[in-house]
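SAMPLE LOG
Freezer: B-3
Tube label: C17
Construct: single chain, 466 aa
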Amino acid sequence: MPELNLPIAVIGAGPVGLAAAAHLVTRGLTPVVFERGTSIGASLLEWSHVRVFSPWEYNIDAAARALLAASGWTAPEPTGLPTGGEIVARYLAPLAELPAIAPHIHLGATVTAITRHGLDKVSNSDREKAPFDLRWTDAAGREQSTLARAVIDASGTWTQPNPMGADGLPVPGEVGLRDRIAYAIPDVLGAARNDYAGKTVLVVGSGHSAINTALALLALQDQDPGTRILWALRRNRLERLIGGGLNDQLPERGALGLAARQAIDAGRVQILAPFAATRLDPSGDGVAVTGTLGQSPLALQVDRIVVATGFRPDLAMLSELRIAIDPATEAPPALSPLIDPNFHSCGTVPPHGVDELAQPEPDLFIVGSKSYGRAPTFLMATGYEQVRSVVAELAGDPVAARQVHLVLPETGVCSAPAGGAASSCCGGPASTSLSCCAADEAAKAEGETGCGCGPLAEPARQAEQA
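STRUCTURE (predicted):
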């Protein structure tokens, strides 16, 4: 083991990264936190306009709450539903300003690579005794190096949105048209209003990020009736997209599906399913979309495209370490079968901790939405339990590290594995939201689950980005 007086590196100052820092200082350990953004919770601020459907009680880590309470902080109303911006302003920013945590945070710090000090990936010589060497660039662009005894990677997936292509690749022409394509949940009623008002907009995706975007566009349509909304689903599973409705224990999550259903029935949204784009080309100030609708060719002329098809992890910074990643989900191998969306698209993901997150490289842990790879069922509360377990292990408390537990609200709909039928009732707790996370192809390929992974699960799946 490296020298115990070295800090423990935490990559990402989102909800899960700061929760890790809170658990570390509570245990008497020293964190060093690297946040790529220029502010705390930078990724959440990119969807600050989105109101999550998981209430405050699910969005605050226990160790963080205790530290804040001791400082005189006033906790939000447990049943209130915050926006991404409110999570930062009322929770993450006060947490980051605590004297026990503030000195250990580097903003504008992008970790570019991690290795074992003095050893390359192939070297076997006492690897576990060598400290980690993190290479990073500071806010001024200068290259830096920091040694750490352990690494907790909570950098998330927000910077790696899935492309529009159903095959996992960008559609030909997509990369060159990024100025006309938005990913995740653009602020169509606020900062981005002029890009969408009175325009024909194609929304691609079947999860709650797509639903949120479609509903915001409907509100814009009320203000500007010239706004036209096309909603493309990769699979023809409209009922799964709509979700649990009134059966959902998170009412706001169920309300999303009910509102979408009403808009579709009223003809205010045109559904395209099953849809696959094969090419994008510039057309004036808009985009010509070529593809298929079922077995038939399809050609569309749109002004803007919103791609809400989930996210994937960026593993480049870990390339000089010995990591094990499932080839399909891109999650740690022991965790992958527990979260594989082919089998776990609803409330069947069990609590998990240090054992499922362990890597061949000792004292390296990938946590938060990044630990779920391409699986869409992550939620913020799960990330809090992950870091509690990991920090307990690093603090020399293996018993506490393995006492993992999690209680979550049920959703009103389950989605069965491919070929199965959907059930009207889940057999267990389900993921909450992108607070959670942070995306359902209707929803496996789309990046969110019909069970209720929402903006948080893909803006806090989305949320804990560095």
